[in-house]
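Re-run with default settings, no changes from the original entry. Doing this only to confirm the output is reproducible before filing.
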Amino acid sequence: LLNRALRGQKRVVVPYCDGPDLRLFRLTSLDELSPGAYGIPEPRPELRDLPDRRIEPDWLDLVLVPGVAFDRKGGRLGQGAGYFDRFLPTVPAHVPRVGLAFACQLFPKIPMAPHDVRMDCVVAESGIFSRPKETETT
């Protein structure tokens, strides 16, 4: 997905762990990534402080969110470290939050805590599941 977006000259932003928080980096090549926290590819440390590469959440047009499990109403269960739970509230409300899942990660209902942020939709190979309007604040 990243390769295709970069080849299509899309603006691509990837997160990286900075202590307990996620920071954002404008990616121009997959060569700028190396294994980071939890073995997940992140921007190489020497590139993170380049002023033209640091991005704020209000610059985003779309957020693709990983998870362990999702429901069809946008509920999401993460890994438990809370990185996305702390990050997502900093993203402007008009920016779509899209969960990326495999069909085996979809469940009838995910328990949600008050601080959990629902996805606007969940995309899996079995379909796209948009959050019903009545669950927007629940």
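The two ends are 31 Å apart (CA to CA). The mean pLDDT is 91.
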